[in-house]
Design a protein that fits this description.
With 100 residues, the protein is α+β, with helices and mostly antiparallel strands. It has 2 domains: 40 residues; 45 residues. 33% of the residues lie in helices and 31% in strands. A hairpin with a 2-residue loop joins β2 and β3. The longest helix has 33 residues. The radius of gyration is 23 Å and the shape is elongated. The N and C termini lie far apart (56 Å).
Length: 100
């Protein structure tokens, strides 16, 4: 292989990696739009979710500063605990200073 082939290989690699990066940005935006995360003023938000098995998952759903723990399945949804008070979100100012 001569110098031109190495240059062509390098440029092709950079182009492919750039296209992959661009595709990941587009997919993130599409995912945010579909999940409702694009609008920050929504009342309903999925805080956390975990898979229990292949057909069921458990989720914490926040609505108006109240958390609800639910199990979501293919054929049924079950509320485990409702109206839990959501923890206050901490900021940098709220965290205590640690000694050196």
């Amino acid at each position: 292989m001569d110098y031109n082939q190495y240059m062509q290989l390098g440029v092709a690699l950079i182009v492919v990696l750039g296209l992959m990066w661009l595709l990941s940005l587009v997919l993130k935006k599409v995912n945010q739009a579909q999940s409702g995360m694009a609008n920050k003023n929504t009342r309903l938000k999925i805080v956390e979710q975990r898979m229990i098995d292949t057909k069921n998952k458990v989720a914490i759903i926040r609505c108006d500063d109240k958390d609800h723990l639910v199990i979501l399945g293919q054929n049924s949804n079950t509320v485990i605990k409702a109206d839990m008070i959501a923890p206050r979100e901490t900021t940098k100012k709220d965290t205590p200073l640690e000694p050196f």
